[in-house]
Amino acid sequence: MSTDSQQTSDSLDPVELIGQYQVGVWRYLRVLGCDDAEADDVTQETFLAVLRKPFEIYSDAATAAYLRRVAYNLFISQRRRARRETLVDDVDQLNVTWERWAGQDNGDHLVEKLEECLETLSQRARGALDMRFRQRLRRAEIAESLEITEHGAKNLMQRAKKQLKHCVEGKLE
Amino acid sequence: MRRDSENPIVDTMLDELLGGKQPPDLTDQILRRLNDVAEPASSNEATVSVQASRPRRRRSSLVAGLAIAASLLLMVTLLGFIAARLNKQKAGGDHDLADKPAGSSQQQPGAAEDLAPQLPELVEAPTNLEPGAPLRQPDGQPGDDRSDALQLALQSRPTLPMLPNPRVIEEIDRQLATSWVENEIQASPPATDEEWCRRVFLRVIGRIPATGELEQFLDSEHDDRRRQLVDKLLEDEDYVEEYARHWTNIWTNALIGRRGGMVKGDLASREGLQQFLRRSLQQNVPYDQMVYQLVAASGSNTPGSQNYNGAVNFLLASMGKDTSLATSRTTSLFLGLKLQCVQCHDHPFNNVAQERFWQMDAFFAQMKAEPGQSAGLVVLSDTTDPSGSKDARDADVYYERPDGQVKATSASFLGQSASAGSQLNEISLREELALRIRYSDELPRALVNRIWSHFFGHGFTVAIDEMGAHNPASHPELLAALSDQFEAHDYNLKSLIRWIALSEPFGLSSQATEGNLADLPDGGGVPMFSRYYTRSMQPEEVYQSLLMVAGVRRPETGFVEQQLAQRSWLGQFAQRMGNDEAEEASSFEGDVHQSLVMMNGPLMQRVTSPMEEGVLAEVLGSQMSSEGKVEHMFLAAISRRPTAREQKMIGQMLGNSNNPAATLQDIWWALLNSNEFILDH
Fold first, then answer.
1. Which residue of chain A comes nearest to B20, CA vs CA?
2. Higher pLDDT, residue B183 or B602
3. Class of domain A109-172
4. If I label B340, which of B89, B162, B232, B586 is the partner at 20 to 30 A Cα–Cα?
């Protein structure tokens, strides 16, 4: 999709649009707090909403931002309807960070850099995260495994994530 | 797994990287759903929702059949009839759906369209900005696809269960009764029918009842005569004009003050705004639509001019050297958020930062007022960026922090940025603001609080335009329930008025008892609504009540002339304070000036003159007994019969008088100058 020659809905290929942006929208929704199923649903609703209106493409970044905005609004509406809490405190800040880290490529580069940064963590910290995310252990189980308190396990993982954040930031900016 | 709110991005990506939560390929599902709902015949129409397209398809097939069989005239007639039927069916269908429990999947057999998959709630753009006009854009053209898309994204309304009117009223009664028990307060006894009738006339149509109206109500033997009276005041053709006039007065004062659009040099036309409001109220336009029209309006200010749109006068009256007044009025009136003080600094009592005000203000960055071709004509529109490349998020406004630092910010609605990726030459920021207000949670809350305050003299919060954590509601659950129902009833103002007017607290006596002495909101306490709070009538209500006893309930002059006469009378009391909130000072609060006008002003002289039409002339010219005449005057002025003591004293005065007519005139004058006349109790 070219920035110079604007595409309209007449020439827009839905398959191309979905293919290019769905990963970014899905990941963004997960960051907002959706579980897998909810992210699947809202991603579909987002593209349906956008494709059922005439749509012009100015640039990849503008399209991605527009899709995220529609996704965000649908997500909020869904939460309101279900009377559920919206988990992100500062959406504007999150949007700025996401735009910086993942706005250009749906977050692929971010995943790649995060993988590299994981290697920089101590074995203990990496182990804790592995237990948490891969093995789905509860915090008490992680603490027991590492022979530390539950609070200690929490701090260990928090510090690890902070370190990852700084590392990714350094690699992406 | 509990989510890490401090590092949501890292947390989510770790879940993907380590937990294997990979993004799925949803292309097939999306395309399948897209194809399921696409219109086969017209690709352009594929953007219209399934629900919206139904009447069109049916209508066009009927048109084809009828074209062969009938003349053009017959066809047009039939089309009108069919369209009305279809609309009625659609309305009925919507109603049925609303009544079904959420998740109900019952379908009518044979209704092929109903088999279409459930889509996100899609509603066509409102079609009556100035009733009948399409969604407006900066260049005055009908709404474009981007604004439609924004609306689409915003309008996914929560499906709130709609309770029937009696259930809502029961809920008000139940919640307040509970709060009285919890606070060990005993409610006052019920008001008499006379008291209730008087106050319901005042609150709903803005004047006291005529003797005939009061007696008709008192003589009614219907069990639900109160409901019948409220329905009559709201729906009967006889009262539509008075209802619209009363609420036009209220909304005009709220929107632009008592002096707005009246002072030389004002950009706004008060007549224009009042015409817009009156039409909207007569047609009972849903409140959310009315607000949308006020915030998004473009056009000229004066009735009869080209591109006239009376709604523009709200913002025109709020434009000065900058748009800060427009911002503060918009947020306080429609959202119940008083941001005026954070214009200069962060809010001292809540978390609202100074930036929040200027983010709201940035939505007005495109707004401009230009002189029209004739004197007094002003056109409100939005300017656009001619280069066409500027992003809406770059429409920065600049403000100064208390430490002298100048900062820039861009449009953001309560923390939500304006549409990302939108180009300034394509989207009106004001329209976006109007949509965001329209679909906000704050809109119904602020309105319910305002109307409740109109009926009781006190809202659920101490200041009705300053809601928030620092100003908690006295009855948060009741406020939430009423707001939800107001929204579920499609922002129907008359429904809200009906619920409150027929509620138990509105029907309580204004007399405090030993059991509710603590319920003293005028003394700074939290209102418990355990009695009706006595207060002074609004000046407009006094004026209309005086006109009524002067026998001019329906003046022969037009609305504009009536308003000019009312304005001239009210002008004696209201003065602008000249501050940046355009506040006004009223001397209609029991001071000497008010007393003099009430005692000796031209209107009072007219009302108490036996030579003029009105109650006094009617009484003096009647064959009623002296007691009957006195009783009639009491009913006309203070909506009750004289007590035995009053009858006795007046009987003595009349017995000792050489000129009974002059004595009756004095009594009439005294009644109209009594506290009981001027108080809503």
1. A134
2. B183
3. mainly alpha
4. B586
